[in-house]
Structure formats: C-alpha cells, structure tokens
Design brief:
TIM Barrel; 2 domains; alpha/beta; single chain; 12 helices; Urease, subunit C, domain 1
C-alpha cells in the first residue's frame, strides 16, 4: 500500500488533484458477499496508513466553546492518539503520512439522529444493500456529506432488516455511516395495552433493535388526540429501559407530545406542537428534542398533491416550538428525516435553518456532534475530537462559525480512521 505524501486539502484548485491522487493510490473496489445477498461489488473506504498525522488550521472539537488554531492530530488505526496545539511540528514541512488541512476547519464526524435511509427498491421489490441499490446509494451519499453516524428510525419495508444493513456496515461489507437502528414493522406494534406492548418491546429488542420507535398522531393541533395512553407509554418506556434500550416517539399534536414527555421517553421526534409547560418538563427530565426542520422545509418547497398549505402550517408550528425550546434550554439533537418522502438533499442544509431561528453556529454544530452522541449513548466513542475516541473527522473550507452553510460542502471525510473517497464534489 502506498504512503500518503503530504496530501493538501482545503484549496479548491487542489481538490481535483487530491481526488486523482486518492483514486490512483488508494481507492479500491472490493468484491464482497453479504450472507443475505448475492455477491456484489462495493466502493471501499480509502485505506489509511497505520499512523496518520492531520494538520488542522482550525479545530472545532465538538465540546469546547471556542475553536483552536494550528492543531496536529495523530491517528493510529481507528483512534485519535494525540492532539497537539500550536506545536512546533505544525510549522515544519509536511512529511510522509501527513494530511494537510492547514487551510481548512476540522470538525468531528457529523451525526444525524433521524433518518430513513434503508428503503425498498421498486425495481427489485425488496430491500437491497449493494451500493447500486437505493439503500446503498443513500447511505454512501450521506457518508460523503460528512455524516459518519446516523440513527435509522424505521423502514416499514421488506427484508433484509435494518439490523442486517447495520451489521454489514459494521463488518465492512457495505460502505456507509455507522448505524443505530429502530425496527418498525407496524406503526402500532400490532399491540394494545401495557402487557402486549411490553411483549412487543421484548420481541423487537430480541430481533436486534437499538431503539424503540413509537408513532402518534399525524396532524398537529389541539383537536387531535394521542394513540397511546400514558399507562401504555409508561409500560413501553419501562420495558425498554429494563432491556437497556431507549425510546423515541414521533409526535405532532399537543396531547401526543404531552403523554410522551410525561411518560419519560428519551427523545421527541418532530414535536410540531409542544406546550411551554411540556418544554419545561423536557428540560427538567433531560428529554432530547429532535426537530426535523429540513424535511418540513423541503416539503413546503416541493409539495405533493397540492398540500403546500398543510406543510406551511407544519413549518410555522415547528419553528415556533423550536424557538420556544431554545429559550428554555431543552436539549436539541440534530435530526433531519433524511430519506423521508424520497428527498435526497444534503442534510447539512438544516444547519442554516437552526441558526436563522435562534441557535448559535457553535451550538448547531454541537447538536450534530456531542449532543447527538450523548443521545445515542456513544459519547465515549464519537461526537468530539479527543484523544482515545474513534477517528471520525470531517473538514470544510472557511469558517463555519461565520457561515454555517460551509458545512454543506465538506472536502474531507474520515470515518473510523479510514479516508472516504469523495466524488460528489
């Protein structure tokens, strides 16, 4: 395997040469067989050297309140083993095994905690994981956008299951972001009452689900009720927590949000309508809010069947709830609903929406790094650039704190210590 010879990222004129270099030196297509699929060919991550030094002109580490300048990162295998700020070595000429991002801003790999990227391929009539399938394309595209970890909250489709896809990525058979999954076979679990719902939780966890996903009303407004009683929701939460699994609930109407929050779910997804009292309860109980502003904004601009007024109302309500949540310091994680409704836009477009409605750029970045990592209970592994953590690192040109839209244009992605070939630029 060839050695990286001081690859410089960060200047647009250099990017094509970098791409050619990576393609020439490292980029391989590996044949693979996933046990539940026919043999297929997958694009593979660029193998990184055993030890790699990364020169970061600016580092936003995911935890500190301010960025740092001129930082040297050393990666061995899939871990960050050292971090040196303003070291003399930074001014030395780059050596073999060095990736030069001295004109760029480095950040932790981004995390999207609400996606639907595993989907049915209409040409095959079943879920597929080879890279040319819809699922494979969606997962690879998301990784190249800089999202190195995602939570897939259900694919109500044919098999193989989300668990199979998660495991294929984990064992290297499929290239994509690290996955946490919620198995969703039926929006009501096919169960009623606390006893049946506890049994449904047990079954889903035993099938390998990382999360429990619940659904509630699909229309906002005080006139819409809730699918579950508080007794039923409390039973689901209690059983899931006994199994070491968290609960996410899709809520839209006030009453559904209230019951979910009162019952102690771990995250509220969408949360179009949430009262001030329930937002304060979320803050007190540490419940995370995942407002999926990107998909709702997309549906306003790309309505289906003359339903633009409906989505415009959804967006107005969602932004109002989001702004009120900011004021009471509710924990907010970054989730976009990427893949819902077939949209394929860069999930990072949501950063601009979050910032334009009151969140600081640094807080928005941290919502997609440490805050999301904490929600996934992976903050000891990912979510920040610190010694001992997995080497999930992305870089952008310019200053994303001055212009958060920079996050829509990553020039470098490393996941688990491996360089990812970017051909979307």
């Amino acid at each position: 395997m060839a050695t990286i010879q001081s690859v410089r990222f960060g200047r647009s004129a250099v990017v094509p040469k970098v791409r050619q270099f990576l393609k020439r030196q490292f980029y391989l297509g590996w044949g693979f067989v996933v046990i539940f699929l026919p043999a297929a060919r997958s694009q593979s991550p660029v193998p990184a050297p055993t030890s790699t030094t990364i020169r970061c002109g600016v580092l936003i580490d995911g935890v500190a309140a301010a960025p740092r300048k001129n930082v040297l990162l050393r990666v061995e295998g899939n871990r960050i083993v050292s971090l040196t700020e303003n070291g003399r070595a930074f001014s030395d000429n780059p050596t073999a095994g060095t990736i030069d991002l001295s004109t760029a801003t480095c950040l932790p790999g981004l995390i999207d905690v609400h996606v639907h990227l595993i989907e049915e391929d209409p040409q095959r009539g079943e879920l597929q994981t080879p890279p040319k399938s819809l699922s494979g394309e969606s997962l690879l595209r998301t990784l190249r956008y800089g999202f190195t970890t995602v939570r897939n909250l259900g694919s109500d489709r044919l098999g193989p299951t989300d668990v199979d896809v998660r495991n294929a990525i984990a064992n290297g058979s499929l290239l994509g972001p690290r996955l946490k999954v919620a198995i969703v076979s039926d929006q009501s679990f096919g169960a009623k009452g606390p006893t049946e719902l506890r049994a449904a939780v047990d079954r889903i966890v035993n099938e390998g689900s990382d999360w429990i996903k619940l659904f509630d009303a699909v229309q906002p407004g005080p006139e819409n009720g809730a699918q579950y009683s508080e007794e039923e929701l409390s039973a689901v939460v209690d059983e899931a927590h006994k199994k070491g699994v968290k609960v996410a609930e899709h809520t839209v109407a006030f009453e559904g949000s209230h019951r979910a929050i009162a019952s102690g779910v771990d995250s509220i997804e969408h949360g179009v309508d949430i009262s001030d009292a329930d937002l304060r309860l979320m803050k007190d109980r540490g419940i995370t809010f995942v407002p999926t502003l990107a998909v709702i904004s997309y549906l306003v601009e790309h309505p289906r069947e003359n339903d633009k007024p409906k989505w415009a109302d959804f967006l107005k309500r969602s932004l109002d709830t989001y702004e009120r949540a900011l004021k009471v310091n509710v924990k907010i994680a970054f989730g976009t609903d990427a893949g819902a409704g077939g949209w394929t836009l860069n999930p990072a477009q949501q950063f601009q929406i979050m910032v334009s409605h009151g969140m600081s750029p640094m807080a928005a970045i941290q919502s997609a790094t440490m805050e999301s990592a904490r929600l996934l209970e992976m903050d000891k592994q990912i979510g920040s650039i610190e010694v001992g953590k997995l080497a999930d690192i992305v870089a952008v040109q310019g200053d994303p704190l001055a212009d958060v839209s920079r996050l829509e244009h990553v020039i470098f992605v490393m996941k688990d210590g491996q360089l990812i070939h970017l051909n979307h630029q």
